[in-house]
Amino acid sequence: MKFNRILVFLLIPLLLLSVAACSNPEKKKEKHYQKALEYIKQKENSAAVIELRNAIQIDPKFANARYQLGLLYLEQNDPKNAFAELQRTASLDPANLDAGVKVAEFLLLANKKDESRKYVDQVLGQKPDHTDALALLANIELIAGNFKEAEDAVAKVGKKEQETDRFYNIRGRIYAAQEKWPEARSMFEKAIEAGPDNFANYRTLLALFEQQKMTADAEKLLATMQQKFPDNAQLHLMMASMHQMKKESDKAEAELKKAIALESDNARYKLLLVDFYKSQNKPEAAIEILRAALKDKPDAIEFQAALAKLLFDMRQYDEAKTLMDGMLAKNPDHGEAKLLKARFQLKDGKKREAVDTLTPLTTNYPKWAEPYFFLAVAHLELGEGELAQKAIDSALQYGPGISQYHTLASQLALIKGDSQTAGREASIALKLEPRNFNAAKLLVKALIQDKKFTEAVSLIETIQKQVPNDVDLMGNLGIAYLGLKDRQKAEEAFARLLEAAPDNSKALALLTALTTDKDLTKAVQRVEEQIKKAPKAAGHYMLLGDLQARQKKYAEAQAAFEKAQELAPDNPQPYIVIARLMAAQGKSDQAIAELSELLAKQPDSLPANMGLATLYETQGKYQEAREKYQKVLSIQPNSPAAANNLAWLIASDKDGDLGEALRLAMLAKQAMPDEPHIADTLGFVHLKRGSFPLALSQFQQALDNRPDDPIITFHLAQAQWGKGDKAEAVATLQKALESKQEFKERAEAEAMLKSWQSQ
Q1: What is the pLDDT of residue 450?
Q2: 20 to 30 A Cα–Cα from 71, which one of 173, 396, 492, 727?
Q3: Is the pLDDT of residue 515 over 80?
């Protein structure tokens, strides 16, 4: 017992000491704070950060500690944490005006003008002549377009401050925003006089010269800057930019390398050199830079991402995928790696998976243009035209200077039949990248759709100087000459095309029509001669079968169509004409029985399901036909034949879902953009939706390939009538009825003509 009492007695002082030590957190936090200030004086910032965190842990409302920690984070280039600490400082201690100003600067950089203004007003409320706050206020008003208010803010600064380079620069930008160029130049030059050692002053004046295309003045200023700042890496980047504009690629490359030599740890500079090599079509040099960078910094994910993207573009998929998998293993949400994953999915035909990968990227990075572009590609390949348009609009909003984006916008407009938009977007794409061959071809097609045949011929001839043997251009040249009624030149163009591409059925059809004067026997002989040169051209057999059917040689015609079907099972045209031909011969039931027997053995047979669907359609069994087309699409989701025919059936139904019909028709159009029956279907859907100009464009495109088709001509007349071109519609409908070909809508067309003529 005595021992226990002694023990308790000894413990009491210790407990009292402990309580006393813990009962004074103010002294403890102050001790950490003073230690931190000492470390800051000694430039031992890491140790200072630890001490400040210790102080804040004791007192989370210790404003001075948070302020110093925010300044340290700024020095360590950690803006996220710096902003958080300075914002908390300004909240805890509104009298800390510097913290308030710095928070306002952060918010203005983030384009949050209204929030920035609140902090500026808070500072100016306590000190109306605060120089930094007035400078910020002037910038806020300038960005908002309030030039008078911006000038008033500058006027509140003391005269001595107004004559500093900082405020000369602000006044210069106010003048420039109002396009008062001489006044702006004068202010920027005064800024250089007031701050001759401030590189930013020269950069601002240089930007003015470049904006106003004052090349001589810009070059003179750059020469001055070279003497003044020989070791400034940013200057060498500016020099590189100037040389690139002047197409002096060797000098541009040298300047970029100088910038890298001065700041070898700056990853952005190396990536700029990579982009330069890509723009010069030197991917191997770009890869060499990236491999060297990764040798020095193997874990640098920005270099891994750039290399993976470049390898993918060069179709070196295995190494690109290895890099991508490594990035995703370290960071499953890495944006560039996820984008590359989506591109792999598109390459592998996994379009819906690509949409699922890309959609979150557009949410997480709402101003990153590239994910929107590939999302547009995915939606387009899925036949989701409206979603594709929405995505490409966003891509153009955030990346207006990318030629590839304007090219896709042009392609979408052409699919919809909007030739004016297509031409405008293709022209922009070519201005941005004169070597964009796809954009040039789209512009040609837009001109032809817009019936600007002379301009189309001129553009084609210009492009052909660089690519003389492109078959698309040859074909479009022939069509343009047809539009100009120059039969001889059209014949020459199509003949050259067939020499270069013996399997081009469109050229054969048009050349045959031009050279045989409606002599069916002569036309059959011409086509049979071409088949010997291109025995695997399905379109040639389609043309042969069509000619033989006109001669009422049904057995020969059916054999030709079946050969075409064998060679091109995805093309809807053979199925349609075979079904019609068999129905005309009274053999539909026999064909259905044979195909049904085949389906009993092979339920997923695409030809059997497709053949049955078209036969049911010719018999008017539309529900059965729809079910079979849906079966085909369940087996092969991107089947243009099934998508096209199902779109037609849905649009023909008075209660049909025209949105779904449009999706299916767009899917088919994307897969086979030049197939006339598909253009006719898309035009028919537009017709049903009341989009008459878009319908007109599609029907006209279909007739360019099948000029004598009475059904398409009938549809064209309806679109013309709907648009209000009534006289033209009557003439077109009369032309359809003059055709000797039979078509099931003839009675409807005759009744419609009488109705129109009576109005």
Answers
A1: 87
A2: 173
A3: yes
